[in-house]
Amino acid sequence: MVCHKPSRFMDDDVVLPVSHSDLRLPSRPYFTKRSARVLLILALVSCALVVFRLGHSTRDDASQYLYLGAMEDNSTENGLPPLYESYHDYERHLPQHNLSLPYPEGRDAKFFWAANHVHSSGWGNSMQELLVNALLSHTVNRAFVFDNYTWDPDGPGYSVYNGKLIPSRIPHSAIISGPIIGSSWPPGDPTPRSVSREYFELVCPRPLVIDSYEINKELRLDTSVPASVIFDKWVDRLNSLRDPCVEIKRSSFQIFEIWLFGSSRILSLWPRLSKSPILRNFSWSPLVLQAYAQNAHLFDSPSRSLSFLPSYLRPSNAAPISPAELHNVEPILTPDQTNPVPGLLALHVRRGDFAAHCAHLAKWAADWNGFNKFVALPDKFRPPPEGGRGHTTEENLQLYMKRCFPTIEQITDKVRKVLEEQYSLYGNSRELKRVYVMTNGDQEWLEELKAALMEVKRWDAVVTSRDLSLGWETKPVAQAVDMLVGQRAQVIIGNGFSSLTSNIVMFRMLRELPPEDTRFW
Q1: At what angle do helices 354-363 and 394-404 cross, to 10 degrees?
Q2: pTM of the predicted model as reported, rounded to 2 decimal places
Q3: What's the pLDDT score for residue 353?
């Protein structure tokens, strides 16, 4: 279904305003302490309702995926997590938010806004959809409209997850940098720069709204249809439109759904995605890179230089980072600059809520995430034929748990096997000396894991996500720091069912690291 959304301003039929004098997105006042207290009270009052809703929900999404900042209590400043007002304000004032700019921006710009993007899901799921939506927008030469990493799109600034307050919306510029969120495209690229949702809503009061079902109805659940077919149909549809402002209906299915990313169907897009500036010019944000640098001594040799980072992001820099340095969407460390850390073994070990999720996967005979199924990678998984449709056998359940929620014994067995295979390939020339465990496990269990790993080998160090030193604004985006460590590890053993692992694998394949250095439980 296609329609034009009723105007948000109801004054005339103009799609793009003829004057840019009214386009200044106002800076919003910082969240006051009084407002914070009011919201805190409201959040705590609603906590019981939220817990009741999650406990009785038949959905298997939000409760099964680790929220970016839910690993620990983030309430460290004024008793509340950050709301990132300065990041929001920075995004409002990007230079492309100006109708007087020359073609292909300004009044000539065309926009693509996926209002139906995923929310209430973990960062891994959100990120993979973000990348492919941006790829689609870039392919049709429309300005990509970016939003926040969103837990709750409409509610107050805080949500309750696992009994803790978390930011409902985190601006993407606190997590990533690059063309996806407004940096310049490579020279000669005719695509207008990405813009914020707020700017789009201001200049496009009457967008053309398309229901994704129009294209995806017969394709979305057909396992024989690769993602590239769906992608190309959307390219044709968008290229056929003259309307400058296109919005995907918010209540419709995502264009690229979890069913695509959760299967090898998504791999058909890799040839395009891997060559696109969406990935080639991707970077983690200055905030994430700074946190990585401050903790690099945990997983890298202290003598190793951080010269690949600007001086203002290194721990040796005595001066505090300036707002201009912190708020910057231009890519700082692109994938081809992320060289492996010699001797580092990264392990992705999910605990907590993932136990129930892995059992659920077994009942539905689920496959690995698509970007974990590159043919070149040595570890494989094929869903067993017995089971599915809500049922499984005990044998199948144990298989899924071993590959998805391994015990300490199973973890150490896999590490031993990988060490043996690495030695047979390289001898002592690429010895693994340090271990970094990306995890949401509790401290007591992690101490047991550390001790067991030390029995495998006398490592120089075994550290975990819990050992990171993180600031107030960094804690809610800590998973991005883990992803950068996994991206740079010499060898990684990841979770094939995890979208976080699959995003790391995607960057490692882009970097053309040896396939035998990317492993799975």
Answers
A1: 140
A2: 0.89
A3: 83
